[in-house]
Amino acid sequence: MDECHIHQHGSRITAWYPAEVKDPIIVHAPGREKVGIIGAVRASDGKLVAMEENKFNAETVQSFLDILIGHRTEGKVMMVIIDNARFHHAKLLDGWLEKNVDNFKLLFLPPYSPELNHIERVWKLLRRQCTHNVYFETLDQLKKTLLAKLKEWANPNSALASLCAV
Predict the structure, then answer these.
(1) Is 141 helix (H, G, I), strand (E, B) or coil?
(2) Which helix (H) or strand (E) holds 49?
(3) Measured distance between the N- and C-terminal CA atoms of the chain, rounded to whole angstroms
(4) What sign does the CA torsion over 58, 64, 70, 74 have?
(5) Could you give the number of structural domains in the chain?
(6) What is the pTM of this model?
(7) Domain-embedded: residue 165
(8) Which of 4, 28, 75, 84 has its CA 20 to 30 A from that of 94?
(9) 124 contacts: CB under 8 Å, gap ≥ 6
(10) How far apart (Å, rounded) are the C-alpha atoms in residues 122 and 162?
C-alpha cells in the first residue's frame, strides 16, 4: 500500500495521500447515520441560529420558526429567504404564518437555485472546516465537532457575514 500521512487532532484523524495515488483506501466507520441541522443566517452580521433535528418536516420547520422569531429585532419584520422544499409549503405552517404575519415573512427562492440560498453557503463552509478529510470514529464525535462550530457562529461573525455579501 502506498504511503499515507496521518495526523491526529484529539479524537479527529486527518489523512492525505500523495497525488500519484489514484485509488487510496480510506478507512471509515460503517453505517449511514447522519447529523441533521436546520438553520438560518442573518445576512447583515453573520449570526447563525441553528438546531439539530433528526428529521425534516412541517413540524420541525415550525419548531425552528418558533426559535428563529425569538431573534427578531423588536419593531422589525423578519424576512426569511427559504427554498422550495415541500415541507416549507405545508398547510400546517399556515396558522403559524397567519399568527405572525405582522412580524414575519417567508420569501421563496426560485426553484433549483441553491446558489442564492445563504444557508447553503454556510453548510458548505461548515463541511469544509469541520468534516472534509476528517475521520470520526463515532457519530457523537462528529456531532460534538459540528455543534461546537455552530455555537461559535451563534454570535455575529465576519466569516458568515462575508458569505452573505451580495
Answers:
(1) helix
(2) strand 48-52
(3) 47
(4) negative
(5) 1
(6) 0.79
(7) yes
(8) 75
(9) none
(10) 10
